[in-house]
Amino acid sequence: MKTTLISVSVALAAAFASVGAVSADAADLVISMPNWPSGQATANILKVAIAKEYKLDAEVRELGTLTAFNGLESGDVDINPEVWRPNLDSLIEKYVNEKHVVEVAARGIDAWQGLCATPDAVAAGIKDIADLSDPAKTALLDTDGDGRGELWIGAPTWLSTGIERVRANSYGYAKNLTLVEAEEEVGMAAVDAAVATGRPMVFACYAPHHVFELHNIVRLTEPPYVAAKWKIMPASDPTWISDSSASVAWPAASFHIAYATAFAKKHADVASFLEKVDFTPEEITHMTYALQVERQPPLEFAKQWVDSHASRIDGWAKP
Predict the structure, then answer these.
(1) What pLDDT, in 10s, does the model give residues 49-93?
(2) Positive or negative torsion for Cα 15, 21, 23, 26
(3) How are the residues of the chain apportioned to helix, strand and coil, as percentages rounded to the nearest 5?
């Protein structure tokens, strides 16, 4: 009986191992998916479009940025749909310029980053970054009754969130504001609630983004970007936030598709396709609106998007 049980156990283990191997080998490639709406949309659009043009099945896997770049190096990830610059320049320096294991598409989408205010915050006199250093004004942003205002600076896993913390320290408004890290869905729900109830709110913002379609949001003015005053240390350094400084506006931003160098060698045709993808800022705004406001599932939205842009996608696939 003991021998029989052992034999059955071995057989079951072998069966499960076989199933696991089949599952692992099911996809032809892996696309990392960021935890923000535009990245979720573009990851799935690439999945559907690549299947249409090249008959390759892609697994879309939600991963943090650092994990995604490690995966691009190890071979566990083939494509990252949305790599922001200058946020991720230290990773680009490491994986693209030094290790030569990742490629970043030359074509990018223009973007910007900063802090924004709701109409009621503007009406209360919060229009410039310097206003956040005035305790009387930031007290208006208090939501928990402790007399200290709150400022949503982004999701915990975003590198931009760390940079916003650096900026708060450098400008000085971290002294009288509680810097809140939460997922974007939570941050945007707070913006919706603030506008609906007439409560002043200031929050980290970026464009293209659907929030500007929904509300009369205003970007805070601040001193223009000066390279000498923007000293952001590599995020691989445990003390990078305290060692960094940035008392000026963000530099011009853009985001790009990245893909593994090894994948490009194996699938040069797909790499060429990725270099031709030309989403517009207006399309990105529409994508975030569809997912965040209309609550369309990313894959279903992607299927419809690919169907309605078939000829354009065919053009991306032409040699």
Answers:
(1) 999 999 999 999 999 999 999 999 999 999 999 999 999 999 999
(2) negative
(3) 50, 20, 30
Q: Tokens for 226? A: 């000066």
Q: Cα separation of 67 and 208, whole Å?
A: 25
Say if residues 286 and 127 touch (Cβ distance below 8 Å). no
Q: State pTM to two decimals.
A: 0.84
CA separation, residue 254 to residues 85, 110, 190, 233 (Å): 5, 5, 26, 19
- Residue 81 to residue 43: CA distance in whole angstroms: 5
Chain centre distance of CA 47? 17
What mean pLDDT do residues 279-286 have? 96
The β-bridge partners of 219 are 116
Q: Could you tell me the end-to-end alpha-carbon distance of the chain, in angstroms, rounded to an integer?
A: 64
